[in-house]
Design brief:
The chain contains 17 helices and no strands. Helix 3 packs across helix 16 and helix 6 runs antiparallel to helix 13. The radius of gyration is 30 Å and the shape is flat.
Length: 324
């Protein structure tokens, strides 16, 4: 007779615990879904209207600030000079002048400088990617005993202003060590590629990404007999596509817009890139033709962004390397 009330009391305690547990879970879900504007406030018509207007305003502002200069440059590239000066924001009041593009390409020799820029950007991309991945792999995956010292030295170079290194780098290019005084590297693309290769920011960026890769995959590859080179080529690089895309964008954009260093080490106009030649020919060129040349030179950076935007914004996915 005494067991029935005890069982009922126990059931009551269990039910109360379930109720309390459900309330606790509900509160956790509420915290997970809680934002600046709660769900109940978002259902109100007034709140939805103001949020919609705010989103539209922000979207239009970003489009104007981001795409406005690019669209204006594209419009001015095929607009006569007088129309650009008198009505800079009008859409071709006197028609479109497509001859600006061909004139910029042929008369200013944009084709030659465009090709020089591609060579410089391609060499800078390869050298920076090679040094960043191999150095990051050595510091993060191989991890020799002196890795912390190397990591600190690489990090310390970020605190040295670039202008301080300008004169020593130039003297090194004019008279390379171990090659003699007559072995100058002026007017040689190696003079641009080699200083760009040792980029401490890219090395630390890749090293930080490699630190987050699963060590279980490396151990499994070593167990299967993979050496350091096979581990780097077959395991690490395929898992590092996001960071490779980021470093590629940084390297190509930096090489494409660099002016001071190519102007110093490439004094011959025949090997200079667009970033150096366009300011040099500005005073001798009509405004519409010069704007057309600027529009042509902006094609590669825009194309690089469109090509790598998904890789650049994608989170560091591992492509299914670790399951379970």
């Amino acid at each position: 007779m005494t067991t029935a009330p005890i069982r009922e009391g126990a059931r009551g305690l269990v039910s109360k615990r379930n109720v309390f547990g459900r309330k606790k879970l509900d509160s956790i879900d509420d915290l997970a879904e809680r934002t600046i504007v709660s769900a109940s406030e978002r259902r109100r018509p007034g709140t939805r209207i103001w949020m919609t207007l705010t989103h539209v305003f922000l979207a239009v502002t970003l489009v104007i600030a981001g795409l406005g200069p690019i669209l204006w440059l594209a419009k001015s590239a095929v607009t006569p000079t007088q129309d650009t000066l008198q009505q800079p924001f009008a859409l071709w009041p006197n028609g479109i002048d497509w001859a600006n593009l061909s004139t910029a390409w042929n008369d200013i020799h944009i084709d030659q400088y465009f090709w020089n820029t591609i060579i410089i950007a391609a060499g800078a991309w390869f050298s920076q990617l090679f040094i960043a991945t191999t150095a990051g792999y050595a510091l993060s995956v191989l991890r020799p005993r002196y890795a912390p010292i190397l990591n600190g030295l690489v990090l310390a170079t970020l605190f040295i202003p670039g202008i301080v290194l300008l004169v020593p780098l130039y003297l090194t290019i004019v008279s390379p060590p171990l090659l003699g005084r007559d072995a100058s590297m002026l007017n040689n693309y190696l003079a641009v590629w080699l200083p760009m290769a040792a980029n401490a920011f890219n090395i630390l960026l890749v090293k930080r990404f490699f630190d987050n890769l699963p060590r279980e995959v490396f151990e499994a590859a070593r167990t299967d007999g993979a050496g350091p080179f096979r581990l780097f080529w077959s395991i690490v690089l395929p898992m590092s596509k996001p960071i490779l895309g980021v470093v590629s964008v940084f390297a190509i954009i930096a090489a494409w817009k660099d002016y001071l260093w190519p102007a110093l080490v490439l004094p011959d106009p025949a090997v200079q890139p667009l970033s150096v030649r366009l300011p040099a020919v500005q005073s001798q060129t009509e405004l519409d033709v010069f704007l057309a040349a600027l529009a042509i030179s902006a094609l590669i950076p825009i194309g690089m962004f469109l090509l790598f935007q998904s890789v650049f914004l994608r989170s560091a996915g591992l492509g299914g390397a670790v399951k379970g």
